[in-house]
Amino acid sequence: MRLRAHNITYGYAKGRKILENVNFTVEEGEVVGLTAPSGYGKSTLAKILAGFIKPEQGEVFLEKPEKAESGYKREPFSMGYNPVQLIFQHPEKAINPKWKMRKVISEVGMPSAQMLKAAGIKEEWLERWPAELSGGELQRFCVLRALNEQTRFLIADEMTTMLDAITQAQIWNLVLTYASEHRMGVVVISHEKILVDRLCTKVVDLTQM
């Protein structure tokens, strides 16, 4: 399976397009970097890829390979779980403050004890409210919630920018190990060139589009 952005165009202000004719693909198991300075529409594109907002022009496709000679076939998003999951930079905006963390993490099925340990989530955190945890602790929940068998592509929008170096390394190790084992495609969105170059096998530079 692959994720394909085809001629994506989007604008906020009159006559100004923040994204214009953006094209790229992400194959299953591939780690693709998406980079540009602030103001080039990285987060907007992340929301378009995950289906949160619609582009003014262009489309996002999930494509399944048919026979080798037949190319790819479009696979429509189902009405259930979205196979393209987005992890935001600010986890507190992605978690219901009225839910305890056990309900948050089990929304799409309770992870195994092994996965909870790999994510660095302590047992006692499950009974806490979101406001009782730090940003780094909340982000571990957001990441783990997205890592399940139904997720085929993960969009990581500056997901470790606000975290300390140790937590960053732990989270990226978890995500990339899981992605490799489950043939999950990952889009790493960042303005940090060093991070993108280290993690990704292909880089898409929005300033060149």
Walk me through this protein's architecture.
- By secondary structure, the protein is of the alpha/beta class.
- The chain has one domain: Rossmann fold (3-Layer(aba) Sandwich), CATH 3.40.50.
- The protein contains six helices and nine strands.
- Strands 6-7-8-3-9 form a five-stranded parallel beta sheet, sandwiched between helices. It has a four-stranded antiparallel beta sheet with strand order 2-1-4-5, with helices on one face.
- The protein is globular and about 50 Å long.
What is the fold's blueprint, element by element?
Blueprint: E1 2-10, E2 19-27, E3 31-35, H1 42-49, E4 57-65, E5 72-75, E6 84-87, H2 101-105, H3 113-118, H4 135-146, E7 153-157, H5 165-182, E8 185-189, H6 193-199, E9 202-205
Parallel strand pairs: 3-8, 3-9, 6-7, 7-8
Antiparallel strand pairs: 1-2, 1-4, 4-5
Average pLDDT across residues? 90
Topology order in helix (H) and strand (E) letters:
EEEHEEEHHHEHEHE
Structural class: alpha/beta
Rounded to the nearest angstrom, the distance between the terminal CA atoms is: 25 Å
- How many beta-strand segments? 9
The CATH superfamily is known as: P-loop containing nucleotide triphosphate hydrolases
The CATH architecture comes to: 3-Layer(aba) Sandwich
Largest sheet, spatial ordering of strands: 6-7-8-3-9
Largest sheet: 5 strands, parallel
Shape summary: globular
Low-confidence stretches: none
Strand content: 25-35%
CATH topology value: Rossmann fold
Q: What Rg do the Cα atoms give?
A: 17 Å
CATH class designation: Alpha Beta
Number of domains: 1
Tell me the helix content: 25-40%
Number of discrete helical segments: 6
